Amino acid sequence: MDTEGWAVNVPRGYRVGDWRVGKPIATGSWASVYLGVRDGEGATRAALKFLPTGTVTRRQLKYFVDMTQREIRLHSRLQHSRLIRLRETLVVDDTENPELDGACVLVMDLAERSLADLIRAGGAVPDAPRLITEICEGLAYMHAEGWVHGDLKPNNVLVMADGSVRLADFGLTTEIDGTHGYLPPMGSVDHVPPERWNEPVSERGHAVRVSADVWALGVTACQLLTGHLPFSAPTARARYVAAAEYAAGDRPLTLPVSLPEAWRSWVSECLTPDARLRPSAARQLYRARVLAGTVEVSPRRTGTRTAGAIAGALLVLAGVSGAGMVDSSVADPYGRWLRSDSDIPPEYRALIVEAGTMCDDPGLSPALIAGILKAESNFDAGLSDVAKNEYGLARWTPSVLQYYLPTERRGVILTPPLSPEDTIPAVGRYMCVRLPLLAGVPGDPGLLGAAAFRSSDDVIRKENGIPERFRPFVERVRKYRAQYEP
């Protein structure tokens, strides 16, 4: 393969660290990837990603250093089976070769190809539903950990030797600070949401939210399912204009006719014009698993309701008047979800039902939420454990609670005491984000979620179950959940 014009031109046989450079694999505008071979017994192969230093301007170098640091920082903090693994980081020391001297080399697991290679073959990609599900797994994990990918597209999703996929190319990732992170004004026009270009550019760059990744997820899924982009036009610029007109309400969304009907609403929701209304990656993960046939829809519920819809329906059922009086002749409006004769304080029942019906993830139920609250605080809204920095009904740490508040308040660190109106629904949001990440771990999904709430989903995945030290807490949740189920 001719590498003239590549971001970094490295000759075959060149040595860096213990690695010998082999055939060229791919290049982008700011990095080039080569096969790396480490000789010895059972020769090891890897991907060597070279990032330039000597052939760029001072301004470009600043961008490249920033993107390299972003990538290394993410790899140092996040590990997941759906993220490409960084084995080591090297720096080229070769003063006789100024074009390579000082270049950073990321040694990563070797992939077979990218999703872009599969899409170029034309038509729907075989096994597209599974591939979409695996992309969602990686994306939901990143979002749950407080990161935005920032450059999700088929070129940046790698296919491994076993056919599974890994998210890669994290040079435009950013950590979320409150509700958003910041990125330089870069990105693939076909996969960047229209609102991105309307964001003012500050010293830190464009503000970017997880909803931007969800838009890119919808575009990528459409490509996998049909072989086509969702906005049809001969050039990237024309496609951007079409997307912008759609986002402004000036034209309808016309998806490819070959898009399977079952996936049409899934893709459409990812491409919702209002970024605030796009579903989470965790929510799309669950729906993708349903469409791919790997999980069954819970028979308890037929869909997701907003908090307002649930509250309104419950008030109607309860016969609440404007003065707040309840018609005692009306049956318990929460009896469908919670035992009427339990010790759950009446003033919390509506909030518990709201939290327990926030999504359709297996294991989530109002009885589980009530069991967690009972085990955490014995329903004590005034709980204050200053030594552990835990407060309220669910023993939230305020700096963690900020990520599970409603969208319009996300990023606000509350000052204790913490109200039930904030803390109870937040448990439901936590479960809707974390339960999909625990799929495949053996055990009761709800109890796995309870263990994750007390520790983290990462701990549960690493242990492949509930660690011994958390079993007493989980056993209490199990007991209380059984008591509260109708």
Structure description:
This protein has 486 residues and is of the alpha+beta class. It folds into three domains: 15-108, Phosphorylase Kinase, domain 1, CATH 3.30.200.20; 113-292, Transferase(Phosphotransferase), domain 1 (Orthogonal Bundle), CATH 1.10.510; 307-484, Orthogonal Bundle (Lysozyme), CATH 1.10.530.10. The protein is 36% helix and 12% strand. The chain is built from 15 helices and 15 strands. It has helices spanning 58-77, 115-120, 128-144, 210-226, 236-247, 261-270, 281-292, 307-318, 349-356, 366-377, 398-401, 420-434, 445-454, 457-463, 471-484, and strands at residues 15-16, 19-27, 32-38, 44-51, 86-91, 104-108, 113-114, 147-148, 157-159, 165-167, 174-175, 181-183, 206-208, 384-385, 390-391. The strands form five sheets. Strands 1-2-3-4-6-5 form a six-stranded antiparallel beta sheet, covered by helices on one side. A three-stranded antiparallel beta sheet has the order 7-9-10. Strands 8-11 form a two-stranded antiparallel ribbon. A hairpin with a 4-residue loop joins strand 14 and strand 15 (390-391). The longest helix is centred in the N-terminal third of the chain and has 20 residues, at 58-77. It is globular and about 80 Å long. This is non-specific serine/threonine protein kinase. One of its GO terms (molecular function) is kinase activity. It catalyses: L-seryl-[protein] + ATP = O-phospho-L-seryl-[protein] + ADP + H(+); L-threonyl-[protein] + ATP = O-phospho-L-threonyl-[protein] + ADP + H(+).
